Amino acid sequence: MERRFRSLALATALLGATALTGPVTPAMAETLVIAAPATPEGFDGDALRPGTQNAVTQVYEGLVRYGRTEKDGRPYLDPAVIEPHLAESWTVSDDGLTWTFKLKKGIKSPYGNELTADDVVWSWNKSFDQKRTGNFIAKVSNVESVSKVSDDEVAFHLSAPSSIFLSALTLYVPGIYDSTEVKKHATTDDPWALEWLATNTAGFGPYQLSQLRPDEMAVFTANPNYFRDPPYFDRVIYREVPSAASRATLLLSGQVQWIDRPAVQQVIDLQSDSRVKVEGSPGRAMMSARMNPKYAPFDNPKVREAVNYAIDREELIASVLRGTGDVAKSVVPPIVDGYDPSFFKFSYDPEKAKALLAEAGYPDGFEVELLYSDLWWWLEPYAIQLAGQLADVGITAKPTRITGSDMRSRGAPGVQDMPFFVFEDGPIVLDPVYTFYLLAHSQGVANRMGYSNPELDALIDEARQTLDRDKRMELMKEAQKVWMEDAPWVVTAYPGIFEAMAPNISGWTPYPDDHERWYDLRAN
């Protein structure tokens, strides 16, 4: 009771309410307080900015969802099972080019508007027009257009059969918006109401944004019309606490019940404290450094191989991740079907690295900036220690910090002007073909450094249209071989994912986007 009272008192103070007196009732206790590095900078899933993904995953849901399973008493997603969600059923044409979904009746947004085919069509057209994240999801899934069949039926028209279409529909993007509400805020100059969506939400998921104080907090309340059982927490306060140490202190003192993505040293320290519960999951996003082949010396494959041989991955995992990660041996993470580490060849071999540099015309090494940002806690120590290891083979890499926003914008398609930088990327669809298209295809939005190989593109494109699983796996095996031979990344590690929470919180289910779903959580 004492822990709940402190959390509720903090929540009340944050909202400017009158201080509480008297006992805490169960209804009053249904507030979840989260300490995060910053408040979300936007709420449009097609225009990802820092914190956006954390929020929109609570507001927008898909027509289908992954199944659920349990392992060691913990809930997990089952990517082999696709279940109905906002849709109740679907059919597919004999040629695999038209998928028709029947929507569930009675699904309403917080504004009281019922989900219809018009909402789905409007939402996908928004993504098509923005030509960003949602448009990429459509492209990789071969979706050409979406049309209304009836008020409760919507058809997706594909340019070719797609092996990943259903899995892609599990995502929060393209978000399915309450278009009736959003269109009230549209203008001639802003037909999709993007300005309004920067500070508001309008979805059919379990939560809605109810208050935003930039640089202070965002408050979310439960959708009173949500079509499933009501969330346990009817209010979530997403509090900005820039200091990681302060976030941990607030959790230990019971003033918050969840902290966002704790650093590994915090995880180690908190695991031994009974006032906190720490849970973990294998990671699907790779710690890596990217080498842009558009810029010398990284246009030379021998240089890229040399950098890979210069790296002691086990040491980096031990020193940066404190042992909480696995050596990366493929662009496909181990938790995704089709992972094949057999083509990994980069043992720690400084002498071989020096020999390759000499063969490439750099016997004395070279100098380069190594860019990093504040998007993840480990980026700075990784960049610094990576630079130290590279110095041992004559490469002077100068760690240089830029903002997370600059990092994302400079790695965007059409820009990609960073010669050498560290980043974390991984698939949010648990599928090897999606993984390759996202990260390694010349049109992949998370390629980020202009890598292009027509042979690899052809393998990925063929696999996108191949429904035969065995054939897809053969193509993905060959793709992993080609990618590893090209060595465009300094493949390093898959960091484990950890969440720290109050000991009475349960229900955390790992998602491929690494964001908890507040709807899953309970307080025991």
From TrEMBL:
Signal peptide feature range: 1-29
Domain Solute-binding protein family residues, every copy: 82-445
GO CC entries: ATP-binding cassette (ABC) transporter complex; outer membrane-bounded periplasmic space
Keyword Protein biosynthesis: no
CDD domains: PBP2_NikA_DppA_OppA_like_7 (cd08512)
UniProt entry keywords in alphabetical sequence: Signal, Transport
Superkingdom of the source species: Bacteria
GO molecular function, one term: peptide transmembrane transporter activity
Classification via Gene3D superfamilies: Dipeptide-binding Protein, Domain 1, Dipeptide-binding Protein, Domain 3, Periplasmic binding protein-like II
GO annotation terms (biological process): peptide transport
SUPFAM superfamilies the record matches: Periplasmic binding protein-like II
Entry's localization field: Periplasm
PANTHER family named among the record's database cross-references: OLIGOPEPTIDE-BINDING PROTEIN APPA, PERIPLASMIC BINDING COMPONENT OF ABC TRANSPORTER
Family: Belongs to the bacterial solute-binding protein 5 family.
Annotated protein name in UniProt: ABC transporter substrate-binding protein
Organism for this UniProt entry: Acuticoccus mangrovi
